[in-house]
Amino acid sequence: MGEFDLIERYFKRADRAAQRESLVSLGIGDDCALLSPRPGTQIAISSDMLVEGRHFLSTVNPAALGHKALAVNLSDLAACGAQPIAFTLALSLPSVDEAWLAGFSSGLFALADAHGCELIGGDTTRGPLNICITIFGEVPVAQPVHAPSVGGRTTALLRRGAQAGDDLYVSGTLGDARLALEVFRGTVSVPEEVFARARLRMDQPTPRVALGQALRGVATSAIDISDGLLGDLGHILKASQVGATIATEDATTLIANYSYLTGTSGTIDSEVSEKRLGWVLAGGDDYELAFTAPPALRDTVAAVAAHANTPVTRIGRIDAQPGLRLVGANGQAVANTWTSFDHFA
Amino acid sequence: MGEFDLIERYFKRADRAAQRESLVSLGIGDDCALLSPRPGTQIAISSDMLVEGRHFLSTVNPAALGHKALAVNLSDLAACGAQPIAFTLALSLPSVDEAWLAGFSSGLFALADAHGCELIGGDTTRGPLNICITIFGEVPVAQPVHAPSVGGRTTALLRRGAQAGDDLYVSGTLGDARLALEVFRGTVSVPEEVFARARLRMDQPTPRVALGQALRGVATSAIDISDGLLGDLGHILKASQVGATIATEDATTLIANYSYLTGTSGTIDSEVSEKRLGWVLAGGDDYELAFTAPPALRDTVAAVAAHANTPVTRIGRIDAQPGLRLVGANGQAVANTWTSFDHFA
Lengths: 345, 345
Description:
Number of strands of chain A: 14
Shape of chain A: globular
Largest sheet of chain A: 7 strands, mixed
Strand order of the largest sheet of chain A: 9-11-8-12-10-13-14
Structural class of chain A: alpha+beta
Oligomer: homodimer
Largest interface: A-B, 75 and 75 residues
Low-confidence stretches of chain A: 262-268
Helix content of chain A: 25-40%
Number of helices of chain A: 11
Radius of gyration of chain A: 21 Å
């Protein structure tokens, strides 16, 4: 199968623009795709590259990989509060494996369709397996009544808006992907159903797109914490020139498999307890959002989170004092011994 | 060096938006970048992935590679007549080689700055060397006087507008990249200065950005012919539901190293002559434009090409009859035995 047949068979679809109002004026099939942004909006753009052996194992289910490759990009749009529009896919493949392509594209398009996000172009080439997606979303601009055509204040959620006194929240649960990874690595052993649940979170993360959009005008800052909570929170602190205090007991409740790890007796093995906190704080590969909001908006945060059908947990606060502090159940300082994921460290 | 230090040192630059009117509202450093398109415009988007051993040799000069990685994307914008705005860069690197990074980023930014095209985001990861750039350009929309905010006819050059009777043109020269490749392969041998000139065209192609923009409203169709003239022209013919006839004598004059290949005696070795035509028609890796325009606009084409400081050569015409015909100097049919480049064929 040639390059154009491959695109035609697995990645080109019937014209979807006709099916609904679309900002995509031209999709796959020319030198460029064309987007027609609406007045009073900005285009949010993010790009992520997934490499075999680094971001996923060669044994991963191709449909799950198709899902994940798009999910990690949708998560970046979510962190900015953007509405997904479209994406490009550049794919380097060692060979044409039709079963793999069928699986990959089905997982990719299932998630794309769920978010109304259209594949508008890209590239295919032969080489070591590499998946690069660039994604486009729409964010409204807050404009004065007599608006200039360009300019105005963005409504995108950025890293730089956190204020001392703000609450610090995390969406969903953390640590599952790391639990699954540790099972693969053989450092822990868990019952099959716990592993299956954790692995699903690793392979098919849920980008918090609805929550991100709902938080526009509510959250003062937000970030996707896929490199680990502590490290990614550090980007908010640096950009906002603030510090933060995290209540580790509150953070620990974020782990989805908590009930298993505490054991049926209700007591926690101390080694597992320590690991568990590390997985929450710096496990990585969780596609959740950390965000900040004023305490006066606690009810609003609860309401929009409920509306977005996404649980959120308040785990700390933003301080004027720089630095990140961890505080235990009894107010004692907890040493921060965890580092964020870094591909080159 | 960690991932963030690497980005900070080699890819993050002083805020350039302040230096000129920019559509980039937010560049590197958040979950997404933000573009603020102007009313009455569309965003043209293209993505290309370059893989070591496939698109370039490991011995390539890193500055030339930085240039080429962006040039191949700029060439896609040129083919649509778009004005470059910005790009994202996703980079998979086997290791942190600071000399390589310094060279690569210098070549990349030299070309980016020449086109006012800003790096606004991307990704870095460890893995086999892979460079994926997604590029963004601006194209005006032709609108009625009382314009709706969205909609209007695009002014982008597309593949589908060629009309029977149109002239067929190619920009610049063809075949040099293939000549350089054949020297590397050892199938031909040429004097050092000829090779140096050909290699420069292979390593540091010139995207025809100014010509593409100048052809808006003049050309009826256009395409980037990086996979080879015949194959890429085939995309115009298919999209426009037309055929074409190419005068091979006219096409042959497109080769830049023609004077060398004809020999000092002025006679052409028949084997070289045959190769030469193949390199022009299907050599590949030439970042030139093929485009069509009505014969009534010949003077206009000449004027805009001169204004864009880019030579163009008329090599044939568009026919109502489907298919692609090659005609020799005496009107005789020339068999088309060349195939277009295909990564998976």
